[in-house]
Design brief:
- It is built from five helices and six strands; from the N terminus they run H-H-H-E-H-E-E-E-H-E-E.
- With 197 residues, it is an alpha+beta fold.
- Strands 1, 2, 3, 4, 5 and 6 form a six-stranded mixed sheet that branches.
Length: 197
Amino acid sequence: MAFKLDKKTFDSLSKEQKLIILVISIVLVIYIDYSLILKNQITILQKVNPRVNSLSNQIKTAKKDIKSIPEMELRLSKIKERATVITQKIVDEDKIPALLEKISSKAQENNIKIMQIRPIRDAKAKELATTQTGKYFNLDISLDVRCGYHNLGKFLNELENMGQFIKLQSLSINIDTKDYYHQQVKISLGTIIIKKN
């Protein structure tokens, strides 16, 4: 049975019949829209949703990181300042004689007689680190001196505050039986040197 609805037939229908046709048409359009269009869109959205969540989390993390940039720049600035201070305390390999002269000068200022001073660089010494500027090594400095206890303490303190990395590695005091005020002292110091590229 074929159903044909033209304008003349539609105008002749009662209001209830027109309303029923309108409701059936709307339901039919919704059904067709759901089955052909919305169903596919919902499936696609379900597949895209995890990616949207992942991107949302990445955006939150990026915003948080962007807010922390000034703090990171401040920390980097402090690290660079600290690195500059540390770098200034490391002796260049070609300035070892100047370091020995500084040590000798500090000894004279404290009434310490240096009998012998010599750098001892182990040829087999492993490098401590390698950077763009060069290779870092330990350098031992051996001192044989004659001095009093108080002068020795003051001298060692001044070496520590001299501006280079200098550490006291060993200290040996031999009492001089002829002169109790002056002792024979063997001092082993350690420092770090850089061999620039």
